[in-house]
Structure formats: structure tokens, C-alpha cells
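Incident log, entry 3
Record: F-box domain-containing protein (400 residues)
Problem: checksum mismatch between cached and fresh output.
Input:
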Amino acid sequence: MSDNIPELSRSFTEEAIMWDSHSLPPEILLDIIIRLPIKSIITCTSVCKTWKSLVQNPSFISYHLRHSTTKYLLFSLYSKTAWQVYRIPHEQGKEHYALHWDDNQDFNEYTKFYFPLLHGPERFRVVGTCNGLICLANYICCDTFIIWNPCIRKFVQVTKPLPLPNIPPFRYSVSVGFGIDSKTSDYKVARILNFRDRKSESPPKLEVEVYSLATAEWKTLTTALPPTGTECYGNPHASVNGALHWVASRRTKDNILIKFVMVLDLEDEVFSEIAMPKFADNERNLPSTISVYGNSLALFQEVSMNYLNIWLMKEYGNVSSWTKIVILADQGPRYYRPSAKGFRKSGEVILKMNDTKFISRDLETQEIKNLGNAGYYHTYVDYYVESLVLNDKKSQLCSY
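Fresh output:
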């Protein structure tokens, strides 16, 4: 048992109006409850006020999270193509989220769920996941955010960021990220806007807004921003080690384009940079996307219809540890460019081979496993762990 369990047990006992001497001791009861499935733990809140107080106790929620060792893979899936959804917005593509066991050989589906507010013409996408929370944002403007815990059927509708000046959407681009301040356990949303005046040759301007779930407020960062001319390449991002990471670039005084990983530390809310790998001449201008790889980073480069590059940072922050791996796309149709979506816990890369086919591939043996998902149009893949996070939140919380 953890060191904080005796303290939690004392708190549990103090909150009880009367403790039946024939009941189990509090520390044993805690040990039993912590092992229950999420749905059963939530049911415990209806037993009595004492149990409800326990399950909503921040210490209990943190302890439960530390012991939630089963990681699933979250798939965000559509039953229509993105083209159909945008082309005929009133005919909604059925969207759902599926959790798959990542440990078993068959990659079976564990459960699926739907978000109750995803209706009407506006579409939402997954920004990121963290400790059982899923952050959603509307497409294009990314000015409407939802932080959702599907396991406990609760969510927070994030207040809208400060309104932008009257700027047409095509004059700016938006990059977003979601993660946790590891020091304060505060969950944060970052919104980065790149403004570009297309009538002049001036470098793009950058504005950064950060939302804190603890304070329920947005703030604009004014210090320690990236240098002028930095341009963030949008989504996806990678949230690891208490920081958000995006692929970014800027031009030198000699007009040479340099690419790098832009890092936002969520504790200090300051930016830093990580150098890219040493690309070959024919790789420098290839589009790169970033992903979490264990406790570090990975870069994906879609080279051609035949293969893609995967760069693994074996040691986080150590630029010399970038390692290149080439994946041959011999399992998909030649007219479809394969794309990497992330990694399984085993280290196998997840590849989207066409609109409905997904495989995982061992980076050492090149062994291939079919992950199925036939008939759906995938938009997002990420790790997911069940948790009670948000269960202690009182204000701005919505239930369904």
C-alpha cells in the first residue's frame, strides 16, 4: 500500500458519521474499492455519503490513477469519410470512440462510447488524451474545447478564448495541444496562432494562449515566446514529460528554412527547442509529423507510396539519439500512401494502410499484425487509461 493510504484512511474514518464495528477496517475497504472497475467505483458513491466522499477525494483519485496500469489504445472512428461529412454536413457521419486491449494478441475491442454533444453541423476532433481525459476541439478555428472523461460520463465545456481581431480564417493557422503540469497536476490546453500578412513579406507572428482547468481561465503568454518568424506546423502534437511538442520552422537571415521540435513546458509555460535529426538532402523538405514514443519522441516522414521513415529519439532530449528506421509499405494498395499513427505499448508502430485497414509492425522483425477496424474511417489513435479524474470537480462540470 502507498504511504498516503493511512492518511486517506484517517480522512475516510473522520468523514464517517458512525463506523460500524462489524464492518471492514477502512484501510481494507480502500484496498478493495481501489481494485474495482470504474463503473463499480462510481456505483459506490450511491451507497452512502462516506463512500461518495471517498471516491471524490483528490487523494483517492490520484492513488487510483497511479494504480491504473492497464493501457488501452483509443481509436476515434467515423462511419463516413471526412469528405462526405463536410460535403453533406446535415447527414452526420456516425462518430464513436473505441478502446482496444493493447496487451492481447487479437487486439480485441474493450468498449466503445459516444460523446453526447457531438451533434449538428459542427465537427469536433481529438486534440489529445491524458490520464483518462480526452480533449476535443472544433475544426478550423479551434476555439471551442471540451475536456471529457467518458469512464465517469462527465465533461467540462471550456470557456472560449479571447476573441480574435476581425481576421479571415485563411489569414491564420491554429495549433493546439493538451497535457498536464506534472508539478501541480493541472491539466492545460495550449492554443498557438500563426498570423501571416499575405500582402507583405514580413515573417509570421505568433500568439500563444493557455487554458488551466484548475483556474478555468485562459491567459496569453507574453514572455519566453519562440523567436519572431517561428511557424508551427499544426497537428498532431506530442505530450510527454510534462511538455507539449510540435514540428515547427523558421527562416534564418540567409533565408534558409530550418525545422525543429518546438517545446512548451506546461509547468513554467516557457518554450524551448529540440533539434531535428540529420536528414539526408532528399529528406529535408519532406513533411514530418510528431508522436509520443514511450517517454520520448518519434518523427514520421511519408517518403513515397512505397515506404516511410520513422525517427526514434531513444533518449529524450538527446539529439544524438535520433535513430532512423525505414518501413516498406508492402501491405497496402499502391495508390494509397501509408501513414503512421502511433505506437503500441510493445513498441510496434500502428500504420494506416488505406481508409479502413490498420496494421501494427514490429520495428525489429518487421512482423505484421492486422488490427482490423474495417468499415470505419479513422481519425485518431492514442494511449488511454481509465481514471476518476474530474470526479472531484464541482464547478463547470456536466454529467450525462
